[in-house]
Amino acid sequence: MQCAAGCHTACSRCQSKLPGKRCHSCDQGGAYVRCPVMDGIVCSARVRCAYHQHGCPSYVPYYEPRDHESVCPHAPCSCTEPGCAFVDSPRRFLAHLIDAHSWPVHTIRYGTHLGLGVRASEPRVLLVAAEEDEAVFLLAIGALGPARAVSVVCVRANGEAGQQYGLKHWAHASNERAITLDCEVTSSAAPGEVAVETVEFLTVPPAKMTGPQADKEMVITVCIDKSF
Q1: Which terminal Cβ of the chain has fewer Cβ within 10 Å, N or C?
Q2: What's the domain count of the chain?
Q3: MF terms per GO, please (predicted)?
Q4: Cα 51 to the chain's mean position, in Å?
């Protein structure tokens, strides 16, 4: 704040304690008003993103950290492997799952079909976009009695604020009509904990599986694209 003469400054707390909230250091004695010079100095102050330890290089205005954090792509995700306390950004999370837990991984390109031979007993497969955003997706397989529920989740904490994705996937067996599902991709910071009931999933009946009973396999084709 500055006095009417523009000669003296005071913080809002101090000026509120002055008699009549008026400057007593000069003859003007006018009330205090906002000081544009000090406002500019204060507003230029920046702080590091709270997720800098997870790889975010951003410095943001001190009064807007929450706005940035709500859309920061480095917001951490949690490993859901039993006994594992790893927490980090999606990109580092991917490396952790591959190196520490040997999760299978496949590269995808947006708008392109990827065929996967997946065992019915395989709980999940990682899909990594070979594009500029390097998004990480988890193809999860859950049991529905003798059938299987196949879903895809984007691994990230701020899904609603970022790029949205559409999904088309289908299961097929030789000489039979494929079962298909088109839907939006759900996001999660703890993808291994996403319940089947909370996402759209493709139901694959035993008739769409091949191989012996103890080692059934499904042929799943996945196509992920950016939603605009």
Answers
A1: C
A2: 2
A3: zinc ion binding
A4: 13
pTM of the model: 0.74
Residue 83 scores a pLDDT above 80: yes
Structure tokens at 103: 């999760």
3-state DSSP percent of the chain in helix, strand and coil, to 5:
20, 35, 40
In a domain, 216, yes or no: yes
| Strands 147-155 and 186-188, bridge-based pairing | parallel
Q: What residue has token string 């000026």?
A: 15
Whether residues 189 and 135 fall in one domain = yes
Q: Which backbone phi and psi does 153 adopt, to 5 degrees?
A: -125, 140
Q: Are 46 and 21 in contact (CB under 8 A)?
A: no
Residue 131 counted as domain residue: yes
pLDDT 10s digits, 195-214: 555 678 888 988 888 888 77
- Quote the domain boundaries for residue 188: 105-227
Closest C-alpha to 217, from 136, 115, 122: 122
Q: For tokens 């989740």, what's the residue? A: 153
Question: What are 26-77's pLDDT values in tens digits?
Answer: 755 567 777 777 777 777 888 999 999 998 999 998 888 888 888 898 899 9
**What's the token pair of residue 77?**
């995700």
Which residues pair with residue 132 across a beta bridge? none
Last residue of a domain, one of 69, 89, 118: 69
Residue 68 CA to residue 180 CA, distance in Å, equals 38
> 211: phi > 0 → left, psi -120 to 50 → alpha, else beta; which?
left
Which of 47, 69, 91 is the endpoint of a domain? 69
Residue 187 in domain: yes
